[in-house]
Amino acid sequence: MRSRSFAVSGAVLAVTALASVTLAGCGDSGTDTPAAGGDKLDVVASFYPLQFVAQQVGGDNVRVETLTAPGVEPHDLELTPKQVGTLAAAKVVLFEKGLQPAVDEAVEQNAKEAGFDVSAPAKLEATGAEFEHEEEAGHEEEAGHADELDPHFWLDPNKLADVADAVAARLAEKDSANADGYKQRAATLRAELTKLDGEFTAGLKNCQRKAFVTSHEAFAYLAKRYGLEMVGIAGFTPDAEPTPARIKEVQDIVRKEKVTTIFYEELVSPKVAQSIATDLKVKTAVLSPIEGLSDANSTEDYFSLMRENLQELRKANDCT
């Protein structure tokens, strides 16, 4: 079986296969010096949270490119030949295995030495949220398994700090001359994330209700960390259609827990969330899973989006 939204298209496989032939040797990812053609280390990040970490930890010593453009839902990413070429030439490729299969395939074929899977330092957990799966032949959707590892680690600031430390170590391996800078910036980022964690702990400590409803199950780490209960309309897959039974279950929870707000996210259609809210006469609001920025001109970043999330949760759950 495979996840419906995580399936790798034949076009992506063809692109990566071609790139492995035409772009092999574009960069010697085994070297411990910055990429040729400049004094910065070329780093590719597969989606926004890893881009943010690379920029914060790398500072002026790195040149960071992301594979997932602003406004694009990262789960469904398909790579262009140009992106595969960029990935193949990079000294470090930051990705999370299983989240974006097209990236997994491209790293396997073109950037094995440069690839750095953040899943291990993130210490992924089975949070109880579920993938939606489909049958390989019949394409009939079925429920996933609650013991599958949840990829949305960055919504727990402590897990993101652990990943930042690991990224700093990886960058130092490839660019030993600037190792101290990477380590220092990772320490600074950890301190800022620890402060953010404290804001969430204090801000969500005294709430009238613990349950919050979201368009998909991206917030389990956040809920676990701060003593809340996430109710996802869909599972891990943001664009999966919830079954009528699941919609009824969510409606029952909203009524029972006196939920005031149905949350949706910017990069996915809000149609289902808005429909449920209309039926139950409750409000809607944005709760960002911070999988990507809304557009290229956005002035927001991880910290501002997390703090917006905190304020929205406090309002929805009547926290004092």
CATH superfamily of the largest domain: Nitrogenase molybdenum iron protein domain
Listing every helix as H and every strand as E from the N terminus to the C terminus, the arrangement reads EHEHEHEHEHEEHHEHEHEHEH
How much of the polypeptide forms β-strand, as a percent range? 5-15%
Instruction: Please tally the helical runs, counting DSSP H or I stretches of 4 or more residues.
Output: 11
Question: Radius of gyration, Cα only, in angstroms?
Answer: 20 Å
For the termini, the CA-CA separation is 45 Å
The name CATH uses for the topology of the largest domain is Rossmann fold
Judging by the overall fold, what is the CATH architecture of the largest domain?
3-Layer(aba) Sandwich
Major sheet: arrangement of strands: 3-2-4-5
Beta strand count: 11
Rounded mean pLDDT is 86
CATH class group of the largest domain? Alpha Beta
Low-pLDDT regions: 1-37, 132-144
In total, how many domains does the architecture comprise? Answer: 2
Helix content: 40-55%
Major β-sheet, in short? 4 strands, parallel
Global morphology: globular
- Provide the structure class: alpha/beta
Report what the structure shows.
By secondary structure, the chain is an alpha/beta fold. The protein is globular, with a radius of gyration of 20 Å. The longest helix is centred in the middle third of the chain and has 25 residues, at 179-203. It contains eleven helices and eleven strands. It has two domains: 2-119 and 146-198, Rossmann fold (3-Layer(aba) Sandwich), CATH 3.40.50.1980; 204-316, Nitrogenase molybdenum iron protein domain (Rossmann fold). Helix 2 (48-58) links the parallel strand 2 (41-45) and strand 3.
